[in-house]
Amino acid sequence: MDNTIMLTDSHLLSILQLASPALPVGAYSYSEGLEMLVENGTIANHTHLKDWLKAELLYGAIRLEAGVMVRSQQATKMGDIESLCRWNLWLSAARETEELRASSWQMGRSLIQLLGKLEPQIIPIANAVGNPCNYAIAFGIAVAHWQISIQAALLGYLHSWASNLITAGVKLIPLGQTAGQQLLLDLQPLFSVAALEILALEDDELACCSWGLSLASMQHETQYTRLFRS
């Protein structure tokens, strides 16, 4: 099967903007438990971080989030506000800890507010979803509005997630900038595999095995010294 993604220049630039570290949604302020994992020695070097990110891409919560992003795009495209709201509530309920839920809500709120200023046509949809709005939901709304290929959107979503965590790892472990970029390059084939698998998931297959992330997030709440919000 030909999985080539065809993008116009406009669509390519749109997904680059959505996935950019410069997008002012506050993603840089979250480590998703990495801060605790580094402190307790679970992640101590480049290899440990690579193994952790690979496991998350194959089995973790990022797959669930990305799956909801796909459904958000589909619901927005079809004008199905009821499904959009239902998936937003579902994702909020699926978050394992208060910190992880709060980060999703804060980033979602920031993205929705930004989109409302850039694209006022989105405001009625945003108002219908209400507050809190999860980040994956807001991302899907933007993807639908800008008519970005869902395959490209998924790759951008996964790449952005990994970039943020690798940046956190570079600061926390610490790693060199070159090591961080090499890690991102090494993960590229897995992004493509994960994206295809996520696209094939049925609704009742949306699940994750991320108890390590959950435990790290719970401990981060009481961590004495913290640089990140999760």
TrEMBL record:
Domain of life: Bacteria
Subcellular location: Cytoplasm
Major location (coarse): cytoplasm
Entry keyword set: Chaperone, Cytoplasm, Nickel insertion
Family that this chain belongs to: Belongs to the UreF family.
Subunit comment: UreD, UreF and UreG form a complex that acts as a GTP-hydrolysis-dependent molecular chaperone, activating the urease apoprotein by helping to assemble the nickel containing metallocenter of UreC. The UreE protein probably delivers the nickel.
Pfam families named in the record: UreF
InterPro entries xref list: UreF, UreF_sf
UniProt-recorded name of the protein: Urease accessory protein UreF
Keyword flag Lipid metabolism: no
Function: Required for maturation of urease via the functional incorporation of the urease nickel metallocenter.
